[in-house]
Structures are given as C-alpha cells and as structure tokens.
Amino acid sequence: MHLHILGTRGEIPKSAPRHRFHSGVLINGKVMLDLGERTFLRFKPLAIFITHLHPDHAAFVREPFAIRIPTYAPELGRYPFLRIAHAITIDTHKVRPLPTHHSSKVGSYAYLVEHLGKKILYTGDIVWMDAKYRKQVGKLDCVITEASYLREGGLVRKDKRGKLYGHAGIPNLVRMFKPHTKRIILTHFGSWFFKDIEKSRRALAALAKKHKVEIIVGYDGMTLSV
C-alpha cells in the first residue's frame, strides 16, 4: 500500500516549509482521506473520505466549492455533494468508517482501509475511540493519527452533556493504538512542534523508545509503503 502524505499542518499559522498544508492522505493514488486543501483535488482520486467537517480537514467548509468526485463524510451538513460514509469498496480498497470522539458540534469518523492484505487506520482529530470499535480494527500495518499536542492528556474538555471533545495527547494516542500496530505516523502538528523542531523530534523519539513503537514524523509530500 503506497501512502502519500499531502498535508501535516493543524489549524495554526504556517511556520515551516515542510508543513504548509492542512490534512490529507492519498492511498495508492485512488483513495483520499481528508481534503484540507482544495489543491488536493488535482490528484483526482476515485473517492474522498472526510473525517469531520472542520475546515482544516474539509477545505470547502472555509471556502465553499463543489466537488465532482464522490465524497463521503460522517454527516451532510449543508453540502449537497456529500454522501454519508459507509463501508464501501473503492477499486480494490475496502474502506470502513468507525465513529470517534472529537467535536461537540460535528460528527467524526476514523477510516479503516484494507488493500491486498494490508490494513491502515486514519483517525483525523481524535479524543478517543470506543473499545467496541477498536476491537473491529485488529492488527494494523500502521496508524496515521494527529499530533496537535505532545503533552499528556492533550486538550480535552466536556460539554454541557458531559461529552468529551478536543484533542488527545500523543502519549495517550500511542497507548491506545500500540496494541494494534508498531508503526504510528503523525500528521496535523500543533504549534508545540514548530517552536523547536529538532527538540520536538527528540521528544517523539524518546516516546517511541519508551513504548517500543516506531513513530514517524510526517511532512507534506512524504511517501512511504506499508
């Protein structure tokens, strides 16, 4: 499975040349996960899967435009071209949405993608994934997840109904996903990462060593195979 990381910047100002673009991942040139930039449409995937309707993951939220490629999301919002995400096969790629916790205002999904015996999970922004959905994931070749916060606990709050929302810390995400994989690819970096990139890389290397996993620092344009 060929992965092309299109964008790795969270909802923060641009500050580093290799992290200019918002979220997006292209799998085998056919399945796109998130559309953080309108320019990603130039890759002409067969289908697009949006994790949630925030503008750094769905560029049309910030600047409305129509999409002629089949585009799936957890909800339709006010966008008539969207379709509700469901388990579907795109070419030879099986894509399955799994509910996650992230926002108090919009729904969110992670996407499990299977292709020729390989499996990856792409989470988008996330606080938590319920155990009943993690059980459906099984063993993975890699997880692609967010890096908004390095600190333990991230930034998580409760709304009036007691529902959690925000972003988990990277240590929390590593603990959640290491039973499923030994390879974690980070995207959607928060401002902490750019204050001192080399120091941030060392902190992530130490975290990887502690948990005996491989943590890969994604960047715009990165390609790799799993």
UniProtKB/TrEMBL annotation:
SUPFAM superfamilies assigned: Metallo-hydrolase/oxidoreductase
Pfam families assigned to the protein according to its UniProt record, in alphabetical order: Lactamase_B_2
Metallo-beta-lactamase domain residues: 21-188
InterPro entries for the chain: Metallo-B-lactamas, RibonucZ/Hydroxyglut_hydro
SMART domains in alphabetical order: Lactamase_B
Highest taxon listed in the record's lineage: Bacteria
Protein name: Metallo-beta-lactamase domain-containing protein
Source organism of this protein record: Candidatus Kaiserbacteria bacterium RIFCSPLOWO2_01_FULL_53_17
